[in-house]
Structures
1.
Amino acid sequence: MVATSQKGETLAQSLKQLDERLEKEIVGFCKHIAGSSQIIAACMSDGCAANPANTKAVAEVLLVIRLFPPRLMNYVKVSEDRNIVVLAVDQWIFERDVDRGFLGEALAGRMIFPYVALISSDYLHSHEITLKKRLILEMLENLILDFPELSNQFLMKPAYFMYEAMLSRIRLFPPMVYNLHTYGESETQVDMSRVLHGYLEALKGLEKEKLIVLSKGYVQISRDFTDKARGQTTRFMNLLKSGQRTMFTSLLSLFPKTMDLLSQDRAFSLKSPVVFERDSRDALRVEDPQKYLYLPTASGLVPLSSRIDIETYARKALGADERTKVEIHQIGGILNDVFLVRVLDKEKLERKIVAKRFRDWSSFKWFPLTLWSVGTRSFAVRGRPRLEKEIAINQFLYSKGFGVPRILHASPNDRLVFMEFVEGRNMSEIVKKTSEVKSPREMKKDLTLIGRVGRTFAKVHALGVALGDTKPENVMIGKNSEIIIMDFEQASKGGDKVWDVAEFLYYAGHDLPPLVEAGKVELIAKAFVGGYLKGGGDVKTVQRAGNPKYTKVFSIFTLPHVMLAISNVCRKADKLEA
């Protein structure tokens, strides 16, 4: 027992020394970068600081410098303890990003997540409060615009603002989830109490300004603020900020997060694509903000995350009585909430369905896609029209013999659709596997499946239907090897068929590992294009998918050499046809 205690003390002392050595090295590197200029402040992500023993994690540092000539610059240092990435920024730019989102909080957003102050903690704390006050007001404005009649009745816990701010950014740039975890033999979530404390201070300041009311631990929007926030100007400004936030956050965060990916061990690297494929809060380990947003009722406070309606419809759709246990688990969704509903009957037979609730895009979480696709593609944004598209196109394709998840029940008033659960393999997984296998026989088998997907798309297009959202994850290979298409909320008759081809191919490129060979990318693209043409698809449709009009939309998250290989295959589709 004594020996174990001594080992523990020795380990703790070693970690402390490592922590001090790392901090000293980072501060020294920051001074080297600043040169003769004055350092105003420096901080690092708490995900790294909370686990100094993991030398594979990248130390991501924000450095604020007075009168910094380059204005904004990334610096990298490879040391014995770990890789260090420093984002150095001029004080003027940083403070404008805090005050008004000058760069979409790509810099100030570091203080939304847990961080450790290395230099000038008072300066950082002051600006953290300023930032959080502004973000809280924006979130309240969005609530007012989303719920004009109910917003004044909402009661919110302060944690709502903390998780909403984090989750909105993780949705826009999923690798930011690293800021919430430490990495070692197991992943652990960092302490959120310091982050929440900043929101508590910000809320007290807003109460003094009579913009909110604080009572018994809850936040309520004042009537004056509600009246002021209603209007098209507020909606447009918040929409614009969301676009800026995504663009700058993606650009300024991509390099350090890529370094982090390459630095982690292989076990985590293999897991990470699963984490980022879907916005599952369980996978990301970020709490649902709506758990802290309540509506007063006669029976008490009901959180907006309540799933009672889903269970009611699930019992109806599955024919389950009150004694039958119904299990509901969230399985994904960015624009929509998607749930897996399970029932175990008396014979111990499990029945599963999927419930999908259609939300409006009025909170603009996916506005960046619309921004990037201006001139290329328009999107249905309201919940009701998207639900109607889902039902109408699904049933139309089913009537024509296509494999789709059958709709079991629908409630347009509640924006709910229940459909059968599809067993099988996801095409996104198959695309990844195709790039990794070495056996020609195994690769041929996977390429054949990809070709069959191309033929299926061509047959759908022959009916005058454009699917609208053709990411590989929306195509399944069923238990009997049948092609099953899902997600029709952006589908339409007479829509853009070129978009369907482009989205499948370039998203497939996004699913491929960073160091994939161009030859394998071409094989995958040729398999899909070949199948599409054999299925009767128009060669001009494929060729247009290689044009800049479409490649510009996907180049933000698909690597350049992958984009080039795919677009070349599309432009030369007439040779494949021959």
2.
Amino acid sequence: MSQSGAVPVKGEELEALRVRLESRRLDERDFELLAKLIATVLRLVTILGQKKTSIARLRKMLFGAKTEKSGKIAGGAKPGGEPGERPRQRAKGHGRRSVRAYGGAKHVEVLHATLKAGDCCPECGKGSLYRLKEPSRLLWLEAQPPIQATVYECEVMRCSGCGKLFTAEAPQEARQNKYDETVGSMVALFRYGNGLPFHRLHQLQSSLGVPLPPSVQWELVKQKAQSVKPIYRALTQLAAQGGVMRVDDTPMTILERDGGGEGHQDRFPEERQQTQGAERKATRTTAIVSELEAHRVVLYTTGGRQAGENMDRLLGQRTTDRPAPIQMCDGLAANLPKQFQVVLANCLAHARRRFYELAEPFPQEVQLVLYCFECIYANEEQARKAGLDPQHRLEFHRLRSAFVMEGLFDWMQTQLDKKLVEPNSQLGEAIGYMLKRRQPLTLFLRVAGAPLDNNLTERILKRAILHRKNSLFYKTCTGAEVGDMLMSVISTCRMNNVNPFPYLTDAERHAAEVAQRVERWLPWNYAIQAAPAAQPP
């Protein structure tokens, strides 16, 4: 209910309030509860008074949407078929994991206690034993604090005659920095890779007997960001050369910028000139996923610019000899760059969602539309499993998907032309949304490599949303910059199957080399040079 602006109230609280109202025994907490109820009722009245509100949308706003699968509508019946439940297939990935999946595990070789290669077989006494290439593997798991500490107690002796002290020499690691490079890597992964705020990690570490204050964590990640800054800049340059760019953004808050504190007006003169009206004053985090050859680069940018403005800044670093890239985004005009040309592709998932929300008032029409989308995505899955290159994928969709999309758009146009659907109705507006964007929605039928939807970027953007959910905001602009850099590097590592923990650690340990030869330290090049044991499966 918090998504709709209403205040959540528990059922037991309402029942207790009803009893106190009947007995006319109210206290101060009851007045607060009544205020919550009034706010909830007013919000619901506002929602119900809106033209675009449907029962399905209201239910989604109140309780959230668990899934948008077609099978949830009318038993998953196809047009012309009988409603019924589809046979359930077992989801992939729900079995036991192989030992090989634990790429970060420590490997210990265990030799036979009594036998070795070349010995005579104790069973038959005739043959000789030889070692198999694949050993028998057993997995054993143990828990330990994310950040561990070691206290070196160096022996101290004093001369009884002269009183001189003699202290044992500490190990090499204890004579260096207090915090190993791995500490900053772990904190960065917790904070910017998994959305765990500094204070929660501090609570966890304190309960395990190894305190790590939030101020210390901040200094560690700031130092880590400084070491990967050349990598972030190199990734930005590479992302600008991508052939396919997926873009989306989400609201974010920077207290130093949005709070209007002292000195605020002088820190953002460029953004203040671009900002027009109250809506442009909002802070956003933009996520861009750029595809170039076999690699993907993920970039996060937090500030007052919209996604289209961030695309302009990125494309400003693109070489002039490269053709215009394909940009995948939703239908908002704010996502488009104003200074550079792109080949626009719109998200089919956004168009599908508009119909899915209308399943209750228009069941037959929605079933037809969702069935067409189901056919398109089934073809895409088949092309992916077959490993088709972009050109063969294009030809496959032209053969299998083009007539489906043409039939769907013809049906939509007929609904409006014959006035079978009111243009101002919810279904009419969903149809109008697709007809208006027919060309970008069907780009995958004309251009090789054009994606169907923007789901990948939305999944990537969830990392920033998780940060907003758990931490609520960035305190300063420096904090947002550090978060963008580390979040970009961590996400790019994961996108290219590189373990970010050893990568961040080695990048800080070899910061001078990273600054001089940054191309060797790009995640995919690092994966080739790194030891196999440090890489994920």
3.
Amino acid sequence: MLRFRYGPALVRRAAFTLADVFILLALAALFYAGVRLAFHAPGAIRGPEISLSVAALPWYALLSLGRMTAAYALSFLFSLAYGYGAARSPAGEKVLIPLLDVLQSVPILSFLPVVLLGFSAVLPQKLAAELAAVVLIFTSQAWNLTFCFYQALTTLPDELREASAVFRLDPWLRLKKVELPFAALALVWNSMMSWSGGWFFLMAAEIFHVGARDFRLPGLGSYLQVAAGAGDLGAIVSGLTALVAVIVLLDQLVWRPLLCWADKFKVETVQGDAPPRSWFYDLMARSALLARLQGVMAGSSERVDRWFHARYAGRSWAGLEPPARPGLSWRARLAAAVVAPCLLYGAWRAGVMLTSLAAASWTAIGLGTLATMLRVTLALALALVWTVPVGVVIGTKRRIAELLQPIVQVIASVPATAVFPLLVLVLIRAPGGLAVVSTLLMLLGTQWYLLFNVIAGAAAIPQDLRDTTALLGLGRSDRWRVLVLPSLFPYLITGSITAGGGAWNASIVAEHVEFGGRTHATLGVGALIADATGRGDYPLLLGSTLALVGTVILINRQLWRRLYRRAQDRYRLE
């Protein structure tokens, strides 16, 4: 019978730690600093007019694609550095993973007005808006990539760890030859999900209102938002058509070739029956110019390897894990001595700001948080019901994947915020009204985190293990019990954490909607955040945001983090 071996026991964390308290204080302090800086921003800001002409769509598409690319490049580099630091430093993990839980739970739409106004106080308006848009898209792309890479490093099979030690690979070669190839397939699928998440927040990133200030950037997101505000269904359809065209091109020219390339890194001893195919990948493989470029890059890569080898001389991985450093360095202690008073002062001033909230506001925050939590739970449960079987089919059946993968990629990349005005128009008078429609939007915006992680997990199941279950004559239920579900477990936890964080973020645009000149809102902490942002009510904005962040941290600590540890302990594929 196939088994997933137990790894070394890992220490369980409490619901809240001292690191969490420090991070929350830092968050409140940074919010207060941003608010103080925002007071110096111009009192009235008006961005350029957004044309609804179809002729403007190609230029708008290029602008949006540029912002998405810049944000993704930052997200990918951040994910590699952050995930590696958390997985390879036992001391750093104690701070970096709680911080990552906070970062992925912070609703960026709460902090975007502070970031925008803060940038506007010190930078030209256009540059401030561009930087704020890239920051918002970055925060919708980075967290699932980081969790994915961290999960890959912490579930690396012992055989690969031992091979690294036997060949005395230094940290750079271990990352290049072992860890990145092992994580490649999951990183490609989560990169597709990151782009889908970026499209989701594109409308909010390119047009944002803070009181009398109207930030606008030309792009597909602003085009769709202006079209939705005007109730122009023709313009909405044109904008969606342009967006789908961009998504299809990316699928054919980027993601499908990357999947073909990453398939060779699967951990298996028997090749699958039908590896993924891509006409563009085959075309590039026959290119003489690309072959010459690869030769030039190979020489550069060797020089980089020699530089890192000299830097890490004598620091090969003799064991399975690097030793933990005892205590903090004097530089870290000096930095803490300088930063801590500033953070404490900022946190105290933020606390003073919160005291201006009336009891009725705190009651509304509590009830809104509970209502949003129920919608997030329902959306996550509904997503799990269909993403697991569909993801397994796409990840294991090559011929079906060739048909369904581009369809799923296109549907997932179409931002739910773009089609939400149509849903509001059709369903707003249905029983439940916006309370039901907002749950549907959360589902549309977060189910893809689960689906893409399930596909990555199913595609990573070695072909020899599938053949073994067939030879043993295991039935469908036994095959799922002993192979499929244990293999998927780490990917399901990663997908659930990022999907949950995405659902909480999506609540801000799901519970407070403007369409055709009218505002529709329902009970929820997301609606409170959106309303406070529009009115410039910073105390309510801070209180609602901290309530949302605290709730997500508690859920992560009490549920997802424990399941994550179980995945590392028990369900490491050997």
4.
Amino acid sequence: MTQLAGFLDVLLRGVGAVGLAAAIGGVVHVLLVLRPPAGAGGLLAAARGRALTLIGAGALLAAGAEALLLLLVHPWALAEDSGRWPLREFLTTEFGLAGLGRVALAAALAAAARGIRRGGDGPARWAVAIGLGILLTANAAWLAHAVSRLHDRAPLMIGTVLHQVGAVVWVGGLMHLVGFALLWRRAGGPAAEPLGVRVLARFSAVAIAALVLVLGPGIYLSISYIGGWGGLAGTGYGVMVLTKVALLACALVLGGLNFLMLRRGGPGAGAIAARAPAFIETEVGLGITLLLAAASLTSLPPSVDVVADRATPAEVAARFRPAMPRLTSPPVAQLLAVAAPMDDTLAKRQPEEYAWSEYNHHAAGFFVFGMGLLALLEQTGRARWARHWPLGFLGLAAFLFMRNDPRAWPLGPAGFWESMVLPDVLQHRLVVLLVVALAVFEWMVRSGRLTRPGGRLVFPLLCASGGALLLTHSHAMFNLKTEFLTEVSHAPMGLLGVIMAWGRWLEVRLPPADRLVPGWIWAACMTAIGLILLVYRET
């Protein structure tokens, strides 16, 4: 139960962060990017109405996620240790009071946005919305690692607030900019074109300022919490920080392309309107994944606090050293005879368990690597038959369903529902469903059976979900070295999965002349994931 509560904690924190970004970033977006005067009509009025709706929805999402954390997840985890539901005691702690404050402030911001949207567009109402946004960002200081530090508590709390302000303004602004870009493209016409370019230019200025807040305090927090190069590569916290840096770099590349396109003005407003939405949507996807990765950091102890259980760079590198894949697996009966119960997460793993897991990963690697090669072959345009590569996902799903959890149904003694309360089993079941959906939808698209434009977006959205799931997959509650080394390959695979997803998204959404590069990128990422699986090692 404690493990499942930990997984829900990460998930709900990520959902709450996305809601805050939509709400607080939306307030900044309306005031600094759209800047519609009172009574403005046309494109700006439509964008403003859509933004206020999203602000209210985001605030309610943040309030709901925090309420579930306070009333269900955290007391559930504490009840596992104490034997009773300590809700009252928990809510009176500093952390509990800060969480209740977030719920109240977010609900109030949702009400303020609703009032403005219904016609109360006066300075006083906007002042209330701005004040609530400021209080919400300040509230973050009491819900992060900084509040528990014995040294430099105040500077770390301030750095946390500034870092999160930059993140929610940037990612939230991108969410709202997607809506504007779609309205802009639909509006078309000579009158809308220059207005759209001006709004995108304003957002670029706001985004640059927000990214300064993301990077400056982020570097300070990373130095304070990681403490050195050893903590960067040898702990789960450090690896997640590296993953965040890689995701941010990808988003900055896309933002840079948009910035250059606007500044040069070469393609014209019409061509910008055709390309900008796809780039902005991809930035949003990467930004949301960044927020989820940041949420997963809250479940990990800072690297400076991990000394005895820290892995060396050589130990980490050994997990990626090429070697022959394992082609045999221990029998199920032999594995069940030595394996500890599924809910005993601290039991020492036996050699048979390592061998079983490595065989599973290597077999999955053959599936994924083969599909990646076929996808690359299809990109050449010389092998039309290779378009059927998504059917390989069906074989992969069947293999994973049978082999993922040998102590659970259908191979092991643990029943289906009994095993579903364990987060690793639950995540494995979700992965199987994702893989089946990937096979069905993408094969139907490539074989011409699914022709609706939305059908082509299912594959990248599912890949993005799978990549995000890998990045939050069963992080060590106790951060033992062996558990970290077992999971260290999840981060690069999750990162490649996210890049693969949004590369495919760009291939689908960009004009035909711009699809070549993203097409090769996502296919190469799938092939690289297969290679990582083929060299996967737990010993």
